[in-house]
Amino acid sequence: FDVGGNIGLFSVYASLVAKPSRIFVFEPNPHLHPILDANLAAYAPSATRFGYGLAEREREARFTFFPGFSLLSGLYADAATEKSVVQSFLRNQARAGVEGAAALAEDAERLLAERFTGEEIPVRLRALSDLIAESGVERIHYLKVNVEKAELDVLRGLRAEDWRRVDQAVVEIDLAEHRDPIVAMFEEHDFDVYVEQDPLLARTELGYVYAVRRGSGRTLDVGAAPSGTVPTLRHPFLSPEELREHVASRLPAGMQPTAWVLLETLPVTANGKLDRRRLPAPAAETSARVEPQGVLETRIAAIWSEVLGREAVGAHDNFFDLGGHSLLLARVHARLRSELDTDISVVELFRYPTVSTLARRLAQPADVSTPSSETDPAGADRGRDRRDAARARASRRARTGRREGSE
């Protein structure tokens, strides 16, 4: 059970570790549901999302949402307290030598000034035991609770007879207010308990309770290193080709990025803004270039080379990966029409971004009645006649529109 799902990263990880698994995700914040649903659909298909939170009983409540820092949103969220937690975290990162953390810590007050402007939204809460009864869950192998100071409410919604269904749990807690009652609750129901605070959360009230039910066959190995290989998504889990195809299916050609560069992290300035000067320049593919084949590929490659300012262009090089963009593509379009006498549209050029694919397209007639200029010169003349006629019609419509608008 993932209580406090946020955008679903824990559930994605659990799906990788415990595949196949049945995962219940609880997230009451409707602003996060689209992202959460997308992550679950892509990486945790066995997960079921519930659009409400958990508490000691069913009720309505007010939920404070921080659009600038959704992770710390919650029923009991306080802007000043949450901001202090982030500042302490950054200072601890700086002490640990994390690159860039010192500069961020120094400027944290200004950077966080607007991130904790809260928005109150009504949410529904239910008792965990009610959900267990409805879904017929017999066993909860892992209960994760991270709900920003509402953890005690969640656990109070678990009736005595349902505690035996839980094998193990990890709960983020407020060490000052909730440590003792939560530890006592687990121990009362026959759990071994260990409390820990991450070093990066030092000087905050945040910590974690780890609990394993006695007789479940599991033990608390305090301080033990993780065993086995931690599964990860394939790297890179999204390729430039996949991203390009996805964007092309949703955006018009003129709005699509012209280059794709994968980065582990984005470089930032001391003020936390994107440092564009440190961004690497888009580079062409490093694989061996395949020389253009045939007259048509060679002529297309020559046009690209001149327009892009490159010495050589390969048959499988992508126009946009070489630094091309919509304005340069318009120049290519004009050159193709004048030098190859082709009817291809600019939109089609986006669909055929390599020399080889474009050559194959140009080698084919646009339709049965319009042979290509390479196979039928007369057909090319007919194509020019149709273009001239179309321009004349467009010109007449434009003149008519101007006359009507002036009347």
Could you describe the 3D structure shown?
- There is one protein chain.
- About 40% of the residues lie in helices and about 15% in strands.
- By secondary structure, it is an alpha/beta fold.
- It has 2 domains: about 170 residues, Vaccinia Virus protein VP39 (Rossmann fold, 3-Layer(aba) Sandwich); about 110 residues, Orthogonal Bundle (Non-ribosomal Peptide Synthetase Peptidyl Carrier Protein, Chain A).
- Strands 3-2-1-7-8-10-9 form a 7-stranded mixed β-sheet, with helices on both faces.
- The radius of gyration is 30 Å and the shape is elongated.
- The N and C termini lie far apart (about 70 Å).
Average predicted local confidence, pLDDT = 83
CATH level-two architecture of the largest domain: 3-Layer(aba) Sandwich
Strand proportion, as a percent range, falls in 5-15%
Q: Give, in order, the helices and strands.
A: EHEHEEEHHHEHEHHEHEEHHHHHH
Instruction: Kindly report how far apart the N and C termini lie.
Output: 69 Å
Tally of extended strands? Answer: 10
* Major pleated sheet: 7 strands, mixed
Overall number of structural domains:
2
Provide the spatial order of strands within the biggest beta sheet. 3-2-1-7-8-10-9
